[in-house]
């Protein structure tokens, strides 16, 4: 058994690849106590493979925990160009996020089809992959909460904690802010999907992942599939 862990900016996702039951926890810069209690019940994995884009403090805590529980040192995956048939567009691959790279690997391993991957987390990332495994590049926006927070910090608009559903024209300011952040990500996804369709002459897939994937559903107007464990699936391919 291998343990696969995805440390994002906000959440930690994990699975033991023998069962593929995905757990998720908000890490707040450390390993949550309830997660420790769960891991204490597990048999020792042969390997612990980690995708880390979140705080270094989480990675440090994870290393201490895995050594204490199972005498296993975690392997923090780094981007390796050309692995699993995926060719990264970045001139300097080390500047490409490991989570985005693993998502590309998972998408290509599943199906050799032109694909737009939208990862809606603390940041919203968009990556375009051709059917032959060539990465065309990507774009990055602030995520839903970062967009809202940056606007509210610079204005006197009050924050209201509710989620609008498929709002086209907002009729109050707070709804306009909330819906605008979701609509911006959805609109860019549409534009990139149509561009990928035109450039490849085929109908691409749209894969939606990340902690805010469900919130974006009403704002996507192209066919899509939610794949919340895409980075973990990429880790599994990399492990093999």
Report on the structure:
Belongs to the type III pantothenate kinase family. InterPro entries: ATPase_NBD, Type_III_PanK. Keywords: ATP-binding, Coenzyme A biosynthesis, Cytoplasm, Kinase, Metal-binding, Nucleotide-binding, Potassium, Transferase. The protein folds into 2 domains: 2-76, ATPase, nucleotide binding domain (Nucleotidyltransferase, domain 5); 113-239, ATPase, nucleotide binding domain (Nucleotidyltransferase, domain 5, 2-Layer Sandwich). Helices cover 36% and strands 22% of the residues. It is built from 7 helices and 10 strands. It has helices spanning 33-39, 56-70, 98-110, 144-153, 173-200, 213-216, 230-239; strands at 2-7, 11-16, 23-26, 47-52, 75-76, 115-120, 123-129, 135-142, 205-209, 225-226. A hairpin with a 5-residue loop joins strand 7 and strand 8 (135-142). Helix 3 crosses helix 7 and helix 4 packs across helix 5 (173-200). The radius of gyration is 19 Å and the shape is globular.
CATH superfamily of the largest domain: ATPase, nucleotide binding domain
Instruction: Return the string of H and E elements.
Output: EEEHEHEHEEEHHEHEH
Query: What portion of residues belong to β-strands?
Result: 15-25%
What distance lies between the first and last C-alpha atoms, to the nearest angstrom? 12 Å
CATH topology category name of the largest domain? Nucleotidyltransferase, domain 5
Tally of discrete structural domains: 2
The value of Rg in angstroms is: 19 Å
Number of separate strands: 10
Separate helix tally: 7
What class would the helix/strand composition place it in?
Answer: alpha/beta
CATH architecture descriptor of the largest domain:
2-Layer Sandwich
**Strand arrangement across the biggest beta sheet:** 3-2-1-4-5
Shape: globular
Mean pLDDT: 93
Tell me roughly what share of residues is in helical segments.
25-40%
Report the major sheet: 5 strands, mixed
Low-confidence stretches: none
CATH domain class of the largest domain? Alpha Beta
